[in-house]
């Protein structure tokens, strides 16, 4: 089965790292030396119990402050499936890292403290999960042990969340009452909550179906690299390497090259394992064409009758990630979109989204660190793109500050509002 | 349905091509260890039928296992890549640093100086490394594209956000990037690839009889570079290496696994991490790796 990539997000002290520690510990994915290490550190610090968060909080500063600063990646496997966990910081200061961890995720786990219920951070994180188009969301109501495993508490939080989430674009939401510290409903069913009839978290993760999340309809192949061997035996080889961003490529398919609009036919597809007849989303391949066309990095192959949108004037949701300076209107940034580099400027902030209540604030002319807004972007050359909700690869871009080199914003392209 | 290994290969190949397309002078670190061998095979597949469009580089402490050095030279020849060797001994001779001395001396930390000097000498702007995030706590936090300043330093607090599959390699003159295309592979994934693609590895990864002695609860191999101290008894044991680095700080494990499938079975059942079982260099302190990485280590 395909590996499941999931992100865990939550407020400070919601117990994210403890939950991951629990998943690893109860699925027997923690190694003895790691356990000995965190036992020794916990003991030295005078903790009452083994602090499983030490497994993921790997940096000196994180251990000192007892919080997660940066995304940590963990790997584990059960007999049914293998998993990549992106453990994301919950603190507001590190929201950009949460976006980083969730951008590639198939599923996100948002933790809610059973004692406090839905708080601003919960709304913020769920909104980001929705904006980033993460297909599946699990709300773990954690620390049920501290509310006497009361079903009324769980149901109230669930209703509270549903009231808020009805305004978000969330396709699949699951609620689970757990205790990461005590292990209830994480890997084993809880004897303390017989009223809950749903699955354990691990069971849910093992069985969730994700193969239909890829866009297999709209063929998109951003050209990454042109392979032209300078060797006597393969002088005529000219292949276009890249990763399929959508739809299927098949030998014999007619394709169109953007921006030139020239057409040709696929005569061969080489994969890392040799020639194949077809390639699906996510596959890294090299495409051979019947005609000798001028194609370079940044061009895109598609089907003649199913093309991406092409424009130099775009609308996007922009998450500002630079703590050094706010977004400046009309300042030139480098735009990186699929394999294409362009330069661009934001000419207008249509509105800024107040992420705690979803209000749209207009008459805004900058976005500060961790703020999100809908903007108009002008680029020096046309981008070939799809609406982010149709395709997370051709619908996403980053802005790079040309003097500092920092990645200052993440953008999701949207259809202009009608 | 795509297998988990299939997606890992696709991701790594994409990263390697992206770097070849965007950087002027990339190089790939290659020690002959299993992770770098797999990484180089992925590079060969990324550009086939063309040659790998960058050289490979080994930072040689001069204290490596002979089998591994012999393998390194052969593999570079077989895969048709240019091999550059940065020598720690040469750096010592040139007065760039002093050799480690004392009974437990290791040249492992000295590699950083030679690595940074070699990057500067060859003007490399991107250096691929075979580090995996499952290896170690600090590595679990590192980006695929890891920015290094003019001093080769890593700053975990200013790491660039890395979203979707979009990587930002912009840097100033004199700065460079470390690139980790197999970040998301686990030890078991590496062995699965070795099995599926029948990859040749240095012989010391498989069980063999070797003169060893016990130190810090690890089996250290007797070599010209590492001798037992008084009180440490040398015995011959059936062992293999789970990681391969400098002979002074890499330990062997007891094992009878002589084939790839036996190694996979052993790895799947292992209850101790790869580096925890075998790397003396990680035991220096709680944040040993983070501290070394900050100053420019792999």
Summed up, what is this model?
The complex is a heterodimer of chains A (418) and B (298). Chain A is an alpha+beta fold and 418 residues long.
Describe this structure as you would to a colleague.
The complex is a heterodimer of chains A (418) and B (298). In chain A, 18% of the residues lie in helices and 33% in strands. Chain A folds into three domains: 4-213, P-loop containing nucleotide triphosphate hydrolases (Rossmann fold, 3-Layer(aba) Sandwich), CATH 3.40.50; 220-302, Translation factors (Elongation Factor Tu (Ef-tu), domain 3), CATH 2.40.30.10; 309-414, Elongation Factor Tu (Ef-tu), domain 3, CATH 2.40.30.10. Chain A has helices at 16-26, 32-45, 60-65, 95-103, 120-131, 151-165, 201-207, and strands at residues 4-10, 72-77, 82-87, 107-113, 136-142, 173-177, 220-222, 225-227, 239-243, 249-250, 254-258, 263-271, 274-276, 278-279, 284-289, 300-302, 309-320, 333-337, 340-353, 360-361, 372-385, 396-400, 407-414. With 418 residues, chain A is an alpha+beta fold. The mean pLDDT of chain A is 89. Chain B has two domains: 4-190 and 287-294, HUPs (Rossmann fold, 3-Layer(aba) Sandwich), CATH 3.40.50.620; 199-283, no CATH class. Chain B is 32% helix and 16% strand. Chain B has helices at residues 4-22, 34-47, 66-78, 88-93, 111-121, 187-196, 260-269, 274-278, 288-294; strands spanning 26-29, 56-60, 83-87, 126-128, 145-148, 176-179, 208-215, 218-221, 234-241, 251-254. In chain B, helix 6 runs antiparallel to helix 7. Chain B starts with a helix and ends with a helix. The model of chain B has no long low-confidence stretch (mean pLDDT 88). Chains A and B meet through helix 2, helix 3, strand 2, helix 4 and strand 9 of A and helix 1 and helix 2 of B.
